[in-house]
Amino acid sequence: MMMHALRALIGIMSRECLRFVHQRERFISALVRPLLWLFIFAAGFRSTLGVAIIPPYETYVLYEVYITPGLLGMVQLFNGMQSSLSMVYDREMGSMKTLLVSPLPRSFLLTSKLLAGVLISVIQAIVFLLIAAAYGIEIPALGFLTVLPALILSGLMLGALGLLLSSFIKQLENFAGVMNFVIFPMFFLSSALYPLWRIKESNPTLALLAGYNPFTAAVELIRFALYGQFNLQAALITLFSLLFFLGMAIWGYNPSKGMMSRRS
Amino acid sequence: MSHRAILSIDKISYTYGPKKALDRVSFTVKEGQCAILLGPNGAGKSTLFSLITHLYDAPSGSITIDGQDIRLKPLKALKALGVVFQQSTLDLDLSVRQNLLYHAALHGIKRREAEHRIEEELTRFGMLERAQEKTRQLNGGHRRRVEIARALLHRPRLLLLDEPTVGLDVPSRKALVDHIHSLCRERQLAVLWATHLIDEIAPKDHLIILHQGQLKATGEVNDVLDQTGHETIEAAFAQLTGRQERAL
Predict the structure, then answer these.
(1) Contacts of B110 in chain A (CB under 8 A)
(2) Domains of chain B from N-terminus onward
């Protein structure tokens, strides 16, 4: 059983990698999005948004430096939603069925699918980070290593959110709503683009909401890890969100809940 | 007949809200038997397939595949099951071989063994020389062949086919129908084949006629004809489902 599960996991991961290689446009657009924010948006806002010294930074940092971890989170957020989209598509086209009729526990199959997505999301995030470094964003050399576990955890959490959404979305057409109601609020109501104290100054309620946003936790986890530090609170929030989203997704795909039947 | 039952459906019911999709349906498919599940659209064929493949659970009744109850032992039951869904489920960007390797991995087949079986199945289907081609480049008939080869890779005891010939031209359809029948004979495979095309039925096939969620008839073609007093399957089917012959 163990060997069977391992072979299946490797099979699911290599399929995801092959699909990724074949969909170069997907890879490029996943990179272009955060790079536009970094090259254009951040450059424009550099002078208007001052960032005070807050942990993990030990000195004043440029706005580009501040938003780099947020953009890493963005890469993973979009990747999580993208795999959710492809799962809804797979379900409509039937290839999700071939996965689900495999003789392995459904929770294992869904977790494997999640891990495969995370592998891709970490690769994309690292490539983005390399480009950012080449552009002039100073990142400690060791940061490339210490950020990896953070990227894996945040990727898992955002991927699990995508998995959960895919279990509740009936059709592909409903996906635009997800973009508006999940991606944008999660991204803008977080510490990705501005520190929480800045939001607090203008609107304490929004700051409170942003504090509870699991995406804020993911971004802070990445931010600290990038400078070799560990943010326990962010890690715990990310971990519990992951367990909650994954648990709900597995429940959503349970045969007795009739996820597939809701299509008709 | 000494052949043992590979698929046993016992008093299965399923409802979508107030609508009864299946109502106490029972039948068996034995080894070496090619059972044709015949029914108009909305008869409950797709629901039945979703229950047999455990995509959802039946609240009442039981389904047993190769002696394993699908609800109590889903993994053992699914191991004995090969499925070809109505819509193609191949990854069009991957090659034939990559698609088959993926399926083998999901079934825990060792890589070397998988390569061996892929070669064997593709040879049987006359597709070996196309193993490296992307499935996108194949025509409908060839894609179907790959899907059936894939469903047989893990050597199931039961093969489920959900309208596999939809969209195929006449020669491809005939080749596929002949091939499935030979699989039943040679491998003693139990086949449950959903269709609404009566010309795909061979005289020795076992018929299961479903209409509005209820089992209307089951037995060998001749038995069903005797039961209904008709000479053709078309007429028997029309009587059992209250349809005009030309509606077929």
Answers:
(1) 7
(2) 5-80+156-247 (3.40.50.300)
